[in-house]
Specification:
Elements: E1 5-10, H1 13-21, E2 30-33, E3 42-45, H2 47-50, H3 60-66, E4 71-73, H4 77-91, E5 98-102, E6 105-109, H5 114-117, H6 120-135, E7 139-144, H7 147-156, E8 162-164, H8 170-175, H9 187-195, H10 201-205, H11 209-227, E9 244-255, H12 258-278, E10 281-292, E11 297-303, H13 311-325, E12 332-344, H14 360-374, E13 379-380, H15 393-400, E14 406-407
Parallel strand pairs: 2-4, 7-8, 13-14
Antiparallel strand pairs: 1-6, 1-7, 2-3, 5-6, 9-12, 10-11, 10-12
Helix pairs in contact: 4-6, 12-13
Amino acid sequence: MERVIFHVDMDAFYAAVEQQDNPELRGTPVIIGARPGTRGVVSACSYEARTYGVRSAMPISEAYRRCPHGNFLPGRMSRYQEVSRGIMSMFEEFTPDIQQISVDEAFLNMTGTERLFGTPEEAAALIKRRVTQNTGLVISIGIAANKFLAKLASDYDKPDGLHRVLAGQEEQFIDSLKLGDLWGVGKKSLERLHELNITTPWELRQIKKASLCRLFGKAGGEYLYRAVRGTDPGILQQETKSQSLSGEVTFEQDTRDPEVVKQVILDLSHQIMFRLLNSDKIGYTVFIKVRLSDFSTSTAQKRLRRPLYSAEELFDVAHTLLQKRWNRQHEIRLIGVGVSSVFTADNQPEQQELFSDPYDRQKKVEKVVNSIRAKGSRIEKASLIDSVPEMKKREEKRFSSRGDEAQE
């Protein structure tokens, strides 16, 4: 039986939710993330903002330079997660084998479902209609025999895309892309390839693996060798929802700025902790993934004696793990944070500590915050919203229009 994998990507998700909730924002450039004038990155942006060259993980200062008239919003993670949960529940109507890799994307194993939903293309079209009818949002779906190709296929015809890579046409599909379209091939790799007069996937495929490893290092060379042939490089390991939760960010430009990396880890920590709380789960092990500019990837983890209490604790452990894995001499391309050894809270009684834990108060606060968010109120972590410096009056007016955002 042919393996059928869907990669489902919610198009410009954060910005699309904001535009759906606030019709005045529709058709305008919306940029979610840090505020202009502060150190931070773009979390997401609308397609209108992308026409100005704004991209996710771009420094916010650069986004403001390119699109100063954009609507810069701090983001409402609780709202995005609420919408995401609703969409993921729709996916469960089509397959029980779901790997959610972030708040706005997931892999669905649709192998063997043709009798229920028709051909893979028909099933994908049905899923797309279901999501739009129920949320007003648009998603793109890529279909292939492995996750790497499915992810590339979901980007092939965005937004509102649907593309399938048929068995036997993997290299033909890869050759229809630009080198820069290959997921995981960044700016520095492209520059090096162009220096070698390699400008297309076909030309790259003519280079022997040993030569690629010599030019790009073992990890980078093997990655390029497999990617250009449509073979999954293996960077998307299987996650079972009941075992682990994680998220990751690939920077628009590789960075060694510790404050930018720290802010991303903090953001990911809060996303993951609220996903745990919302699903009534507890986790014992914190892990990080660090990919450097040369594609070398390392991981580290720490198992705790009792469940994680708060996002602050998750952040502290993850940041400490990063400091042990990163000497700041090399730029970071990707950072990931996750929690494993995850169980349903009811099935895993907490071990009582003899002395009070410094994170216990944070745990109680975050449970209260989460319950408030569940009722529809908007509340954000103050540490995730940078202070706004003195700016032009029109920027102040635009920011003040979001003054109903409560801060924790």
